[in-house]
Amino acid sequence: MLKKGDIILLVITALLSISGYVGYSMYMDRIESLSKIAVIRYEDQTIRRINIDTVDKLMEFTVNGIYNNKILVEKGRIRVIESDCPDQVCVRTGWLTKTGELAVCVPNRLMIKIEGENLEIDGVTH
Amino acid sequence: MKGTRKITILSVFTSQALVLSIIESMFPIPLGIPGIKLGLANIMTLMTIVIFDFKSALMVVVARVVLASVYGGSMLVFWFSIAGGLISTAVMGLMYKRYEKYFSIIGISVAGALAHNLGQLFVAVIVMKELSVLLLYAPFLMAAGAIMGGFTGLIAHFLLKALKRIITT
Amino acid sequence: MYKTLKVAILVIILIIALVACKGWQKPVESENFLMGTIISQRVYGKNAQKAIDAVNRRILELEELMTVNRSAGDASKINEMSGKSLVPIDQSTLQVLKKAVYFSRLTGGAFDVTVGKIVQLWGISTDNPNVPDKQEILDSLKLVNYEDIIIDEYSCSAGLRYENQSIDLGGIAKGYAGDEAIRLYKEYGITSAYINLGGNVVVLGKKPDGSPWRIGIQNPRSSNGKYIGIVEVADKTVVTSGDYERFFEKDGVRYHHIIDPKTGYPSNSDLISSTIIADVSVDADALSTSTFIMGLEKSIDFVENLEGVEGIFITKDKKVYATSGLRDSFRFSDESGEFEYVEKR
To answer: Reduced to 3 states, what is the DSSP secondary structure of residue C91?
Structure first.
């Protein structure tokens, strides 16, 4: 039923659409890695995702748990601005601006992370 | 074949195409990509090309698109449909006439579906003046075209087998 | 014609495999609050998620065994029965205790897990840390002696010789957990992974692209992941102890969380940060704490004499020293400009 040309046509179509798809997904990865998404996790649950590049006005909200973390977002950066936890590590961490950066409040089990891979280092020992 | 007989059959084909395009508009494919259709009306275009000729097929397509736009759809949809229809008919007509040796009905149908989808995409790029759309949608539209085109081609293949004798004699 | 078809199908399968491979290159990342800290993992490979789940379960198990905050844990049971009897313990607690005693002997007591009582007095890592009474510290200091840890391997049990003695495995448990994580990754066929247990970094293999993992050494006088240098490692662990991790201030004095077992007070050597790079994380964990307490001069000589162990030390006057084995893999890079790298001593 199928002739030689049919098969060639189908193969070429398959090849083109698969390679097109690969290119497409690589392009999307690139786009995604370029935009900075701040992920806010509380008790191992993601509670908010904010694209901090597109924030155009000051944003402030509080995550309430055993302790309370007040989070401040500006264009291109995010931080814990106030916390009533005992160690204050989260507040001292300051602004997060680069992908891969992390601010953690262990007592309140809160974490803010800018998604994506850090281009300079894979991690920090402390 | 006599003129009257031809006109009668062509009008039947046109109305069949119209019915098919209305039927498929009732079952949108939820893939999240605009413009993907089953392309059932393609069956009738293909049959017209095989049984009659390219010119007749063009008439069937234009009549079908014009009539379908009467039943609903905006001006934009009309231009998209006519562009896709004409390009795919042209490709299928050419392939059937020149390269029938190498391609079966199914292959021709696939080529037609591809031309239809990519043709519409080109129109979209021209209208939206945004080239990246083409690059993003092309692989999906191609894959869809190959699958749908194969499907409609298969139907046309069996229909032709059954109808060719009846109509041409 | 069938040949064409066969070739075509082969090519398509190949391309799909290639696309799938690309998917494998993407790591699974996870962050969890365990062992009183945050544990980040980045694992490559098709069993990545399963491996991460297994590691998290294992760490939870270890936490229950080794923390002194869980009364049912081995550490709590040993403390409770101190001076009375040995208690049966888990095989992993036994391993950790053996390591603890080994490193206490090796460091001449700079590392000593029997400081439990004093850690408790300071209230370190509780909500209200405080400066204890001097006499209280002196009294508790008498209870600190790693030679009083009794381990019976045959019955898998352990105990403390005298009543009121107390162990705190906080300085070594995370290291052991790191080694367990690597063991589990391997069990799941993983060849490339990174885990950070509240600052203790352990890496398996190289990154999938074949390059080494790049680990930043935290700037001890700044936060926000700012680092003073980068060390490139594969199949290694990097553990840092510093005076900045946990501390509190009282009457203008800063008290940090690393207690010198000899004085009962937060260590007051000339170091503010001590990093150990080694093959085994439990070793690095114990060594980073002990070198931090021992101070620069002793630590450098000590570490140079240990096989497969390297160190990076930062002094109070903001000078950075690295042992000789790190010449190639450590790159000093301090954005703040406050620190000075001393290449040759």
So the answer is: helix
Predicted local confidence at residue B36, as pLDDT: 63
Q: What is the rounded CA–CA span in Å between residue C68 and residue C80?
A: 10
Tell me which residue in C15, C38, C227 faces A111 most closely, judged by beta carbons: C38
A59-64, strands of its sheet edge to edge: A59-64, A68-74, A77-83
Interface ipTM: 0.76
Give the gap in angstroms from C-alpha C145 to the nearest C-alpha of chain A.
28
The conformation of residue A46, written as its DSSP 8-state character, comes to E
Residue type, A83: S
Q: Which domains does chain C have, with CATH numbers?
A: 28-61+174-342 (3.10.520.10), 69-167 (1.10.3980.10)
| Residue A125 near chain C (CB below 8 Å) | yes
Q: Which residues of B touch A13 (CB under 8 A)?
A: 110, 114, 142-143, 145-146
Evaluate whether chains B and A are touching (3 or more beta carbon pairs less than 8 Å apart).
yes
8 Å CB contact between A112 and A99:
no
Asked if C155 and C86 count as a contact pair (C-beta separation under 8 A), the reply is: yes
pLDDT in tens, A20-42: 888 877 777 777 667 788 999 99
Into how many domains does chain B fold? 1
Query: Parallel, antiparallel, or unpaired: how do β-strands C340-342 and C319-322 relate?
Result: parallel
Q: Residue B161 is part of which domain span?
A: 3-168
What CATH fold (topology level) applies to the domain A36-114? mini-chromosome maintenance (MCM) complex, domain 2 (2.60.320)
- For residue A5, the chain B residues in CB contact (below 8 A) are 99, 102-103, 107
- Contact present, A36 and B133 (Cβ < 8 Å): no
Chains contacting A (3 or more CB pairs within 8 Å): B, C
Question: Does residue A9 contact residue B142 with C-beta atoms inside 8 Å?
Answer: no
Sole residue written with tokens 């060594």: C287
End-to-end CA distance of chain A: 69
Search chain C and give the residue with CA nearest A100. C225
Query: What is the residue-level pLDDT of chain C in tens, covering all 345 positions?
Result: 566 666 667 766 776 666 555 555 688 989 999 998 899 999 999 899 999 999 999 999 999 999 887 788 999 999 999 999 999 999 999 999 999 999 999 999 999 999 999 998 998 777 788 899 999 999 999 999 999 999 999 999 999 999 999 999 988 999 999 999 999 999 999 999 999 998 899 999 999 988 999 999 999 887 666 889 999 999 999 999 988 877 888 888 888 889 999 999 999 999 999 999 999 999 999 999 999 999 999 999 999 999 999 999 999 999 999 999 998 899 999 888 899 999 766
Residues 12-41 in A contacting C (C-alpha not used; CB under 8 Å): 14-15, 18-19, 21-22, 25, 41
- Residue pair C256/C266 in contact (Cβ under 8 Å)? The answer is yes
Is the pLDDT reported for residue B32 higher than 60? Answer: no
Can you give the residue ranges of every domain in chain A?
1-34, 36-114
What is the CA angle B154-B159-B165, rounded to 5?
135
- Tell me the one-letter amino acid at C156: C
Q: Which of A1, A3, A14 is nearest residue B102 as measured by Cβ atoms?
A: A3
Interchain touch C–B (≥3 Cβ pairs closer than 8 Å)? no
CB contact under 8 A, B104 and A1: yes
